[in-house]
Amino acid sequence: VVLSIGNFDGVHRGHQAILQAGRQRARASGAELVAMTFDPHPLAVLTPERMPSILTPLSEKLAQLDRAGADVTVIADSSVGLLQVSAADFIENVIVQRFRPLTVVEGPSFGFGRHREGDVETLQRAGARHGFEVQVVEPVRIALGGHPDAVISSSLVRQLLAAGPVDQAAICLGRPYALLGSVIHGAGRGAGMGFPT
Questions:
Q1: Rounded to the nearest 5 degrees, what angle is found at the Cα of 65, between the Cα atoms of 11 and 123?
Q2: End-to-end CA distance of the chain
Q3: What is the pTM (predicted TM-score) of this model?
Q4: 98-123 pLDDT, tens per residue?
Q5: Paired strand residues for 118
Q6: pLDDT tens digits, 135-190
Q7: Which of 93, 172, 181, 195 is most buried, with most CB under 10 Å away?
Q8: Per-residue CA distances from 160 to 8, 109, 150, 169, 175 (Å)
Q9: CA 137 and chain centroid, separation
Q10: Which residue from 12, 74, 83, 73 is spatially nearest to 41, judged by alpha carbons?
Q11: Which is it for strands 72-77 and 33-39: parallel, antiparallel or unpaired?
């Protein structure tokens, strides 16, 4: 397989670029592209007070990962045990033993293992030992507002949604942001003003 690991919250254009690169590598190798994500978000387990708002619920994340080219998505249970494993043990017990990847595709800021002690250089050294390649995909940058070189990230999308420019958040996502939920009958005030919900 070709493997990409991450939270993928929002499955924004940066994530899409990583998955597109992984998809190209998988096609060239006759392999499947596997996206490994976590549920719940690791911060919800480790430091709930620092937990950001989630952009996409799991069902929507899975649909967006599929649209972005993942053949298979593996959902890892964000247990304390998994999140506290060392980077070396994560490579050995998860990446190598469970997936045996041809290539691991990540962004340059990818971190993993206890306290995010592992990074892409850690992966590259492990790849040389275990026989897998590591492809690093550069971040997607856009001109946004007064910032000529903004890096698309889940944090940026959250900031834009909180501040109000949803059109700029849509540029980062590559699609309009959507809220999911059930529509129920209310008091009809919107319809009375000419704006039915």
A1: 80
A2: 45
A3: 0.91
A4: 999 999 999 999 999 999 999 999 99
A5: 112
A6: 999 999 999 877 788 999 999 999 999 999 999 999 999 999 998 888 888 888 88
A7: 172
A8: 17, 21, 12, 6, 14
A9: 13
A10: 83
A11: parallel
